[in-house]
Design a protein that fits this description.
By secondary structure, the chain is mostly helical. It has one domain: Tetracycline Repressor, domain 2, CATH 1.10.357.10. It is built from nine helices and no strands. The chain has helices at residues 5-21, 28-35, 49-68, 78-95, 97-105, 112-136, 142-154, 156-159, 168-188. Helix 3 runs parallel beside helix 6 and helix 4 packs across helix 5. The protein is elongated and about 55 Å long. The mean pLDDT is 93.
Length: 189
């Protein structure tokens, strides 16, 4: 079901608060104050705070998957597809900074089926990356390579600034070159 404008605002505010204060550090009162409404009014839109966390992490997971899935069948060499994956991931982080941060660090506060669904989507995303890496580098330890790649790309949410000198695409291409050529190749080549 589509969200109302007010619900969209609520989810955006929650993502920013969860990003800056953490899920457990954000109270219902914090959310109400940020929205300029009474605490009780929030319950017209949500049943509990975890519903917001689930919605934010689910949207982020879907954004990452939607960016990467088309590359599996796309034309181009394995290396070209891998480079596009770096760019796609960086673009999602940049376009969804608060939600990406929550997705990376607050998902573990989910419980039950919501947690299982998010874990399943995370595993599916990582498997797509493993296939791309394996296609590009058949002899690579794709599990370790993907952990290293995503560790670097995911950390962008901490330091990336839209007003900075490099676009998400520029950053992603540099990360890609570091991964495929090695830092030494970048410095000496």
């Amino acid at each position: 079901m589509a969200r109302t404008r007010r619900q969209e605002e609520l989810y955006a505010v929650a993502a920013e608060l969860f990003r800056t204060k953490g899920y457990h550090g954000t109270s219902i009162q914090d959310l109400a104050e940020a929205l300029g409404i009474q605490r009780g009014s929030l319950y017209a839109h949500i049943e509990r705070k975890e519903e917001l966390l689930y919605g934010i992490t689910l949207e982020a997971a879907q954004a990452f998957l939607s960016a990467l899935e088309p590359l599996q069948e796309a034309s181009g060499s394995p290396l070209e597809k891998l480079e596009r994956a770096f760019v796609a991931h960086a673009r999602v982080v940049a376009d969804h900074l608060p939600a990406a941060s929550v997705f990376f660090h607050e998902w573990q506060h989910l419980h039950g089926e919501a947690r299982e669904e998010i874990l399943s989507l995370r595993h599916r995303y990582e498997e797509l990356w493993r296939r791309l890496v394996k296609d590009a580098f058949p002899r690579a330890d794709e599990r370790l390579a993907v952990r290293w790649i995503l560790g670097g790309l995911n950390w962008m949410y901490q330091w990336y600034r839209p007003e900075g000198a490099l676009s998400p695409e520029d950053l992603a291409r540099r990360f890609y070159r570091y991964a495929t050529e090695g830092i030494g190749g970048m410095v000496h080549g």
